[in-house]
Amino acid sequence: MEKGENMCHTFQTASTNRIDSGNEVGEIKDNIKEQQVMEWYEIYYKDIYRFIFYMMGDRQCCEDLVHDTFLRAFKSFEKFENRTNVNTWLFSIAKYLVIDEIRKRRRKRVFSLFSKDPEIQSPFNIEQYIENKDTIERTLEAIQQLKPNYRLVITLKKIEECSTKEIAEILGWSESKIRKTLSRGLAALKKKNDEEGGGYFEKRL
Question: From CA 174, how far away is CA 164, in angstroms rounded?
Answer without folding.
Answer: 9
